[in-house]
Design a protein that fits this description.
single chain; alpha/beta; Rossmann fold; seven-stranded parallel sheet; globular; binds NADP nicotinamide-adenine-dinucleotide phosphate
Length: 230
Amino acid sequence: MPQILITGASRSLGLALTEEYAARGWRVRATCRSPAQAEALHALAQTHPQISVHALDVSAHETIDQLAAALEGEAIDVVCNNAGIGGGGKGLGALDYAHWSEVLAVNLLGAVKVSESFLPHVQRSTEKKIVAIASSLGSISTTRGGNYAYRTSKAALNMAMRSLAMDLKESGVIVAPLSPGIVDTDFTRGARMPKISAAESARGLADTIARLTLEEAGAFIRYNGETVPW
Ligand SMILES: NC(=O)c1ccc[n+]([C@@H]2O[C@H](COP(=O)([O-])OP(=O)(O)OC[C@H]3O[C@@H](n4cnc5c(N)ncnc54)[C@H](OP(=O)(O)O)[C@@H]3O)[C@@H](O)[C@H]2O)c1
């Protein structure tokens, strides 16, 4: 049975990805920072025995090391860095640097640390893939300004994933940042724009991940397979 590890699986897109992979017959290591409060995830795990719930806060590196050690020797086919935060923060003239640091710690450093710590597990697997849920808001060429913390975290995440892809290509590990589309989740609540459901995004992301080849390693790809401009 192929195996995936997903961060931020407590709700929204991470929960939908957990459900999608479980439905596809994968073993899912569904990780979240507060398992005791992840009711929806536990309810899903009740109906899908191949889902196991694990504590992992991507900004607390010791929790990443602990889980990597607990799963030592396991083969993890896909590591999916989904956990992310945004919001908050004011505009130019009132930038909140403490908030900005938190966003970088979760969206950028957390994803890199998870990728680094679980690399041995990925290298032991058949599929050998590491992906990060990036964002078109991290695109440098299409930025419309504002949202400094989130945009820079996702732009830097793209660079980190592309650099990882270059470093790991020779060993057969495929790394890519993926854009999920504009998804109807807690994150986009209140934003008035056309959105797709978390289930649709998760389905598209899983299809895209399944199609990823070494030749595409380091590309920035949308959930529906389109290339996103850097
Ligand atoms: N929704 C969109 O349209 C959209 C578009 C582009 C990119 N994205 C990206 O897609 C990913 C998922 O977004 P979403 O819409 O599902 O967001 P969401 O509704 O805000 O959910 C965020 C998830 O990340 C988890 N999380 C936050 N900080 C964490 C930490 N330190 N350690 C572990 N987990 C943490 C949350 O866990 P708790 O339950 O513990 O808070 C929650 O499960 C994010 O990386 C986001 O930037 C989303």
